[in-house]
From TrEMBL:
<dbReference type="GO" id="GO:0016757">
    <property type="term" value="F:glycosyltransferase activity"/>
</dbReference>
<protein>
    <submittedName>
        <fullName>Orotate phosphoribosyltransferase</fullName>
    </submittedName>
</protein>
<keyword id="KW-0328">Glycosyltransferase</keyword>
<dbReference type="InterPro" id="IPR029057">
    <property type="entry name" value="PRTase-like"/>
</dbReference>
<dbReference type="InterPro" id="IPR000836">
    <property type="entry name" value="PRTase_dom"/>
</dbReference>
<keyword id="KW-0808">Transferase</keyword>
Amino acid sequence: MDQDKIIKIYANSDSRIQLKMIPGHFVTSQSHITHYLDLTTMKSRCSEAQNIAAALAANYESSIPVDTIVCMDGLEVVGAYLAEELTKAGVLSMNAHQTIYVITPEFNSTGQMIFRDNYEPMINNKNILILNGSITTGSTLNRAIESVLYYGGKIRGVAAIYSCIDSVASLPVHSIFQSRDIPDYHSYRSDNCPMCKNRQKIDAIVSSYGYSML
């Protein structure tokens, strides 16, 4: 990956939060995209994770209860800080311990999101906030919503670092960066990708874990 091509975008809410992206031709499990959004340091550096959590927490009123944060895309560090920020802001937890759980789902061989039996009590009849890294097509988020509802959870909100969509399943998506911040960012179905039609080489296969160059 050519690090010289990195572009940095700063959040309007906090100039300490910067989104790194690299233009090119990238392949995900869902689509082909024009930019790789590098969330690596956001997910692993405590100072950045704390700033992100504070920015996201500002979107939630204390009247909305949150018992459990379901962390997608490896955002457990951000999730832990978000739980702390929500607690400081007076967001109530209705579970017996009056504290917010931070958990990560698993995916089975067919791509379905599952929770083991020992995690089900943290989902069933609990108020859930889903935390995402980036949302493009919304298909992964929809699977997450379906899974939480299947296990008896009540979804109270959706948060993300970057999102192309403003809402899903009648729920607003609160994100730090939106599509207007990256106007050249596009996502295409694999069978209708103009970059492929123009024979532009694929730079890397990307996922929530990072990228693998080709």
